[in-house]
Amino acid sequence: MKTAPHLKTKLWKGVTKALGKDFSDNLDRKFDLSFAERNLVVYDMFDVPKVEQTNDSRISAVRFTVDLSAVRSSIEGIPLSNLKAIFRVAQDSNLE
User: Fold this and answer.
1) Quick one: 24 and 40 in the same domain?
2) Domain with 88 in it
3) How far apart are the C-alpha atoms of 71 and 48, rounded to whole Å?
4) Residues 37 and 26 reside in one and the same domain
């Protein structure tokens, strides 16, 4: 699967922003796969709180942050298996 160069640039900008000014020090840290698997949560889009749509023409765009710490996922099963299934379906639909 090929990746557009602008998407790679966007990804690295996000990584550097998240890691902050100590980018090179933080980049050398190891990814803890076991921790990630134990703490992974996959949410259905309907689980995530949203801002209700408005008909006010003065509002053209809204950005917001959602705290999911108190939100339970309605998706049953093992989160990693669910995530793999989602990506598999997305990849298959891109091949068609």
Assistant:
1) no
2) 33-95
3) 8
4) no
- The two tokens of residue 55 are 């008909």
pLDDT in tens, 84-96: 888 888 777 776 6
Q: How far apart are CA 1 and CA 69, in angstroms?
A: 34
Residues 43 and 65 in one domain: yes
Whether residues 49 and 87 share a domain: the answer is: yes
Asked if residue 42 and residue 5 are part of one domain, the reply reads: no
Chain centroid to Cα 40, Å, comes to 11
Closest listed residue to residue 17, CA positions, set 6, 27, 32: 27
Q: Which two tokens stand for residue 95?
A: 């091949």
Q: What average pLDDT does this structure show over 49-60?
A: 88
For residue 4, the one-letter residue type is: A
Measured CA to CA, the distance from residue 28 to residue 8 in angstroms comes to: 19
Do both 74 and 87 map to the same domain?
Answer: yes
pTM of the model: 0.53
CA dist 60 and 35 (Å) reads: 40
